[in-house]
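#struct-help
A.M.: can someone run this one for me? Single chain, 231 residues.
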Amino acid sequence: MRPARALPSRFPYPLPHVLPDVDPLSAGRAGLPADGALAIVGNAPGTGAWEAAIDAADSVVRFNNAPGFGAEAGHRITHLALVNRGGQTREWLADRNFLKRPVVRAAQAFILPFPMLSAEQNVPEPICWTRELLALLQPLGCPVLLLPETLHQQANTLLGPHTVGHPNPSTGFLVTLALLLGRPASARPVQAFGFGFDGWHGHPWAAERAWFAEAEAAGRIHVHPPSPTER
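D.P.: on it. Structure tokens below:
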């Protein structure tokens, strides 16, 4: 096992700069083996080469519509992170077959990255669909983990100095941050696949890429770049 090296100052482990009530996805709370092999699969997975490595992990975390699931991105999933704000969530709620999707049916637990807004906060145009998504997922009988506001504050602290304006972290960044905060420093590096650091213009991709690079230099994560055609 490769030993964890000293961490750069922007990478918050063993939590000297983390807010005291940040709620990471600890192994026990998330149902993850404390030192087990963990694969985090983003939405730009490389084709073919990583299927066996992903499926060999003890735990496999995927995101939203999980492109490549059941094919070139592997066939296993333990946790599915679903964005719970905005138009994508609204589309899922309108889809009568959402619960029949293979990735949804195969997931053993769900992660919602945004805290629930109160009714007073969710006006005039609703953006938070947490209550509705919880109700939709309830028949599956699986645990649903909700990331807290304090984790978002920590993400903003990490990304803010390298972002113009107020940072809006991606779901992939938030979930990866929570997982690494809740993982022992002695654990083997997390294997990250399909992170292209590209997509919706509102996310601070350059800052997130830099954070992942620092975490990799610290021995906490290993990033497998997506294939050139899928970046």
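A.M.: thanks! DSSP finds eight helices and seven strands in the chain.
D.P.: also worth noting: The radius of gyration is 17 Å.
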